[in-house]
């Protein structure tokens, strides 16, 4: 079973065919994004005279530059806050067996079930009263709380599976709880932090519903709402729309291709905890 | 621990609690004067054809996505876990859609599935108005979600497959066990944790589905593809019926809770039985 046989070759051909089917939408995306609107030939035949005009047009009209900056800002700040507070919370939750610790853990885990739709409407009112409607900081606040249960769940699961020997040794050596967390526990948390970072960053970057509620009608946009607004505005100008879609996908795919191993392992591994 | 608890309480716990309370009122989202109306929002729902349809669509989409996405995901995982030379390239390619923004891929597919879109260009005479036909539109949403997330299921199954020691598999092969039997008796039980995670992710994701519906059909044609989530959005922000909208969110929460509870119980038992 470790040899490359005829059957392996047949499987190889089949899988390549499947890969082509999966990649087909991306081919059409690029093909139409570089096509001038005057070219009305079939969407699957290769574009004969490619142009970059759609990209400059889409970039100018959709406000994608500002949206990209906002998306990066919201993602970086929210994910940094979520990882910091969740890791700090997970440590006592995983190590203490006191009743308050178990109760708190269960309450936070309740957040894994509560759909965000339930909280997002009442929170809409709070955000409005705080004067944060139309500001990207409302999103940072929202994600910083929303992603806590899942991230804490990842950290607690990981910590519970981690042997306590190092911490016990440090404690015998007289390390304070802070020193212990900073120099003993934190370095061991690296693998799960990569996972939590990847999963949170993708979730925050791609979220559409929340910014649709909190940013609608304002000039502060994240990439998903900027794209949706642009599609609404240029309803059937698909060449322009495709250029905008492609611009919004390129940064994501660039990061994905650069860090594919960590990202795929992040998605596959976070769930072992 | 306090900062996490404070953020979680402020952003999730308190608003969710208030949400449950508003579900029993006629609040319009703005007016500070609103009345407690008891169960009226829920009894209204029972007479609201659109709401009942949306609940049915939500369950149908979630179940269809769960079965198809995991079926394809598992086959893809078995395919790229073989000795084929392109396995690494294919892994990266097949997983790629899962990281791309769902609203963006949904707009891409809206064009692909349109009357003059690429799908009809490939199918020629078999082309259809995929998103304009009320009988087809719901299934197109399922197709788009499966295209995007089959690779996600694949990587989780793949991690499960790779954790199975090769010796067990080889021993069975030497004993003359056929490939189907090997899969069913050896691989399947050892994949139990991956199956649990995949089913959980896809069913909960399917129940909450919003972006793809919003971008592909907007709930149409008519109300043929409305889900609970799209109805929550429309009722709250175009009709100003916050109370009713949040009552729908409560129904959504109950469905998610039932699905998670049922899955946890059933799969936990299976996982124990398997190990």
Short synopsis of the structure:
The complex is a heterodimer of chains A (273) and B (275). Chain A has 14 helices and no strands.
First-to-last CA distance of chain A: 32 Å
**How are helices and strands ordered from N to C of chain A?**
HHHHHHHHHHHHHH
Alpha-carbon distance between the two ends of chain B: 35 Å
The portion of residues forming beta strands of chain B comes to: under 5%
- CATH topology assignment of the domain at 60-226 in chain B: MetI-like fold
Low-confidence stretches of chain A: none
One letter per element, helices H and strands E, the order of chain B comes to: HHHHHHHHHHHHH
Largest interface: A-B, 88 and 88 residues
> What's the domain count of chain A?
2
Inertia-based shape of chain B:
globular
Number of strands of chain A: 0
The CATH architecture name of the domain at 60-226 in chain B reads Orthogonal Bundle
**Biggest sheet descriptor of chain B:** none
Organism (chain A): Paractinoplanes atraurantiacus
Keywords (chain A): Cell membrane, Membrane, Transmembrane, Transmembrane helix, Transport
Membrane topology (chain A): Multi-pass membrane protein
Domain ABC transmembrane type-1 (chain A): 68-259
């Amino acid at each position: 079973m470790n040899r490359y046989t005829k059957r392996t070759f047949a499987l190889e051909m089949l899988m390549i065919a499947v890969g082509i089917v999966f990649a087909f939408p991306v081919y059409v995306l690029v093909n139409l994004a570089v096509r001038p609107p005057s070219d009305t030939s079939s969407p699957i035949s290769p574009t004969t005279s490619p142009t970059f005009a759609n990209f400059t047009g889409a970039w100018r009209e959709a406000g994608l530059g500002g949206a990209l900056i906002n998306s990066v800002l919201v993602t970086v700040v929210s994910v940094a806050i979520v990882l910091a507070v969740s890791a700090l919370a997970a440590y006592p939750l995983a190590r203490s067996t006191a009743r308050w610790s178990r109760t708190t853990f269960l309450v936070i885990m309740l957040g894994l079930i509560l759909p965000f739709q339930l909280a997002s409407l009442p929170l809409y009112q709070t955000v409005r009263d705080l004067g944060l409607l139309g500001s990207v900081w409302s999103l940072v606040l929202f994600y910083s709380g929303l992603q806590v249960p899942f991230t804490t769940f990842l950290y607690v699961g990981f910590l519970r599976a981690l042997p306590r020997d190092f911490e016990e040794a440090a404690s015998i050596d007289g390390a304070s709880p802070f020193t212990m967390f900073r120099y003993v526990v934190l370095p061991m948390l690296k693998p799960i932090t990569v996972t939590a970072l990847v999963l949170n960053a993708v979730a925050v970057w791609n979220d559409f519903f929340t910014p649709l509620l909190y940013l609608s009608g304002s000039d502060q946009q994240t990439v998903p709402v900027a794209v949706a607004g642009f599609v609404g505005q240029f309803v059937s100008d698909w060449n322009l729309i495709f250029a905008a879609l492609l611009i919004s996908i390129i940064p994501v795919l660039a990061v994905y291709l650069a860090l594919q191993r960590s990202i795929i392992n992040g998605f596959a591994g976070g769930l072992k905890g | 621990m306090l900062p996490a608890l404070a953020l979680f309480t402020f952003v999730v716990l308190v608003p969710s609690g208030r949400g449950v309370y508003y579900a029993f009122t006629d609040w319009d989202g703005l007016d500070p004067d609103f009345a407690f109306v008891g169960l009226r929002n829920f009894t209204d729902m029972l007479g609201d054809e659109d709401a009942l349809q949306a609940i049915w669509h939500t369950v149908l989409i979630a179940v269809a996505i769960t079965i198809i996405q995991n079926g394809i995901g598992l086959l893809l995982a078995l395919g790229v876990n073989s000795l084929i030379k392109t396995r690494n390239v294919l892994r990266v390619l097949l997983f790629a859609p899962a990281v791309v923004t769902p609203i963006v891929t949904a707009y891409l597919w809206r064009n692909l599935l349109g009357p003059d879109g690429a799908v009809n260009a490939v199918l020629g005479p078999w082309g259809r108005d995929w998103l304009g036909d009320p009988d087809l539109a719901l299934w197109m949403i399922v197709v788009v979600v499966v295209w995007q997330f089959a690779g996600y299921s694949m990587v989780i199954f793949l991690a499960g497959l790779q954790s199975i020691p090769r010796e067990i598999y080889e021993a069975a092969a030497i004993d003359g066990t056929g490939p189907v039997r090997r899969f069913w008796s050896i691989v399947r039980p050892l994949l139990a944790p991956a199956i649990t995670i995949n089913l959980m992710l896809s069913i909960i994701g399917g129940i909450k589905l919003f972006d793809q519906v919003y971008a592909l059909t907007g709930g149409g044609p008519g109300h043929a593809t409305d889900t609970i989530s799209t109805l929550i959005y429309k009722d709250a922000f175009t009709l100003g019926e916050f109370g009713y909208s949040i009552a729908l969110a409560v129904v959504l929460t109950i469905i998610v809770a039932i699905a998670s509870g049922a899955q946890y119980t059933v799969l936990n038992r299976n996982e124990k039985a398997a190990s």
